[in-house]
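Researcher: I've got a protein sequence and the SMILES for flavin-adenine dinucleotide. Could you write out the 3D structure of the bound complex as structure tokens? I'd like something to compare against our soaking experiments later this week.
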Amino acid sequence: MTSSHATGGAPTGAAKIGPDDARYRAVIDKQFNKRFTAHPDYVRLTESTAQVAAAVEEAVREGRRLAMTSGGHCLENFVTGADVRAIIDVSPMKRIAYDRERRAVCVEAGATVGETFRALAETWGTVIPLGEYPDVGMGGHVCGGAFGFLCRQLGLAADYLYAVEMVTVDAGGRASSVIATREPDDPHRDLWWANTGAGGGTLGVVTRYWFRAPNALGDDPAAMLPRAPASVTTFRAEWSWERVDEAAFRRLVRDHGVWCERNSAAGSPGASLWTLLELHRKQFGAIVVRGVSTAPPGAVEGLVDSHVGAVCGALGAPAKREVARMSWLEFALEPFPDLFTMPPGGVRTKVKDALLRRPLTDKQIDTAYAHLVRDDVDVMGGMLGLATYGGQVNAVSADATASAHRNAILDLACSVGWMDHRDDAASLSWARAFYRDLFADTGGVPVPGDAYDGALINHPDTDIADPAFNTSGVPWSAVYFHDNYPRLQRIKARWDPRNVFRHALSVRTG
Ligand SMILES: Cc1cc2nc3c(=O)[nH]c(=O)nc-3n(C[C@H](O)[C@H](O)[C@H](O)COP(=O)(O)OP(=O)(O)OC[C@H]3O[C@@H](n4cnc5c(N)ncnc54)[C@H](O)[C@@H]3O)c2cc1C
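Model: Sure. Here is the predicted complex with flavin-adenine dinucleotide in place.
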């Protein structure tokens, strides 16, 4: 039997804290996107699965709108919505240990990506291809599929998910926990499957994940997951916008797309390289290509040179170029500080994500140029990012997990960050107009098909569910979940019949 139940009831033990408590402020303040501020009646800091079940049952009984948080890195207001009256924060639950019985590494949902990378590397010398930002919480991350620097080599983090423990609520309002595994004879296997890509906040509260590679044999914990890279090489090259005219821009983006098309097959040498082409607004001044590779010394230099040479031939020699070699953990715990370090007080942000199956067309490249050189708006933080994708991600079939995007070669994002709420309207409208024009031929969104693979639920964008921005006639659910959506709806009906766990992009039963 692969399931267990912890009963709800009196929420003994979980700290219940109100607005006057410093710990309440800390939970509100850790929410990454400063566009939104939560105002719940209380926050519960949970330390065990039983406490989570009790806290969930209490909120349901009292009729309070509930949300849970782990790392606080949601890009939309799924935790911070104005109607959220109770927040359950699982972040005190951080234990990471090998479970001999399940032959898998167990990670509690409150651990961060960085804490997980550290425990795996230092204890067993292993790695899961988790996301790029160490402060992201495992709770909301893995159940959304989870891509990262190593995904072209190793696939998604969810591809290593063996089991999940989740607190769910039945039709009578009773909360209990269940463990669901990928074992073919597990009666709860559908819940495991949903947690490989449905996203956070849609079925219940994840309390623990177990990880084991699909092909792992024996019971040595060091052999349950891929080996951590021995070391990595990072590079960064920068060009001034002053030297880039429309023709050079077009060639740059076109050459970049061609490189990605030729180097994104699973197992190809280029799959050991993750890169990001940062096309910042011209006012910001720079175009950057950066990347990280696990290729060994001796091979990596040629790989980096061939990527930069193939992609940036139109730009000539970079104004700056940096290459560094470091341990995997040193990189994973502080990747690209100039990209990820946030200003004091944090940022307000909008990220509009799309997966591309093909390079951008010339028409789209011209659209990108027009939006990046616009000088009628003052939006310093805006950029078009093109990150390499595919590789091992595409070796898994679209229905093997709930992460259906298994054909993309690029992850595109129109993103903008700012600090002052008075810049909200200008910043949002710049990103929205840019994205709408890029995907004008498919109703303003990357409708899955020949050219696009939809968008990632871990980068949620509520505009895709808004008919003012999505005029394609294709529902948001197909953009995020493709043909997996009807199965997710059936699972939702079974495990969350009261729709307790919901937000603007959560799975609906009707
Ligand atoms: C700077 C930054 C970098 C990122 N980089 C990557 C990346 O490289 N790869 C990638 O895949 N994603 C990335 N993301 C997206 C990130 O994975 C998702 O936003 C993820 O949902 C965040 O999880 P969290 O626990 O930190 O956030 P939260 O804000 O705490 O939660 C996000 C969502 O998950 C729900 N949730 C939280 N905890 C649980 C739980 N225990 N059980 C069930 N639902 C839960 C919340 O209710 C909410 O709906 C990034 C986000 C940011 C802001």
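Model: The longest helix spans residues 246-262. The domain at 96-228 is CATH 3.30.465.10 (Uridine Diphospho-n-acetylenolpyruvylglucosamine Reductase; domain 3).
Researcher: Great, I'll pass this along to the crystallography team.
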